[in-house]
Amino acid sequence: MKYFLFVTAVLFAGPLTAQNLQLHYDLRHTVAPGNNPHNFPTLYFEYFKNQDTGPDSVKPGSILIKPGSFLMKMQADFNGADNNQGKFYMQVSQSLRFWKPKIYLSLQYSGGLGVTEPKQYSYYIANTFSVGADYVFQWKKAWFSAVLNYKYIPYKKPSNDFLYTLYWWKGLLNYKLELAGDFSVWRENKDHGDGNADGVKGKRFFFFAEPQIWYNVNKTLALGTRINMYYHVYTSENDFQSYPTVAVKCKF
Q1: Pairing mode, strands 66-77 and 87-97
Q2: Could you give the dihedral angle defined by the CA atoms of residues 252, 23, 126 and 184, in that order, rounded to the nearest 10 degrees?
Q3: What is the tens place of the pLDDT at every residue in 239-252?
Q4: CA pair distance 134, 132, nearest whole angstrom
Q5: Total domain count, the chain
Q6: How far is CA 194 from CA 124, 155, 191, 197, 221, in A?
Q7: How many helices (H) and strands (E) does the chain have?
Q8: pTM of the entire structure?
Q9: What is the CATH number of the domain that holds 139?
Q10: Which residues of the chain have pLDDT under 70?
Q11: DSSP letter for each residue of 128-183
Q12: Domain interval for residue 217
């Protein structure tokens, strides 16, 4: 399935219509110094294309599969010793349809890794494969994409669960301001089969969000902030974590 997702991404990505590079300075040590040894920069790259413009965008019968949106996100956190790269994360998603209703089939892969001090506690962000439905809609002049997926993580004790994500974007003040972001909710087995939670039954609920506000200085440069929100992502304790950033974005 992993190779199918990557082949699908290559086949349907096509010419790029939007991409941006963001540099964030994460203020989590300033907000919660007891849990975070220092603030750190993060480099974020986003590659996006939206292809399907509707059932009449091509002549009937001229194409069997209509690709919808393609998204690739890569994030590198420079939170290691001497601000070396300590974490890398990648997500690739593709939607498509071969029917008239504009509810898309959604395919997604994500994964990454992290380096810790001491090194023996370094970790993988487990490969995650998702398939489901994607519905794009507009409400009060804002654009939304609601994705409900079946999610499979191949732990030693595999986890089969749901993943719901809502993406949004809205322009204000003649697009001088942009409101953007997404939030995700999902669940996983408490016991991954790695010896850390042997015999623990049941599921754990997760939440992650990254609302953003951007001020467009011009067509290529924007200044803004992102608030990273976590629940059960970094700790199994029932603690909600919220860390803001200050950021600059280059669109090209």
Answers
A1: antiparallel
A2: -80
A3: 999 999 999 999 98
A4: 7
A5: 1
A6: 12, 8, 8, 7, 45
A7: 2, 13
A8: 0.86
A9: 2.40.160.40
A10: 1-17, 52-63
A11: EEEEEEEEEEEETTEEEEEEEEEEEE--SS-EEEEEEEEEEEEEETTTTEEEEEEE
A12: 2-251
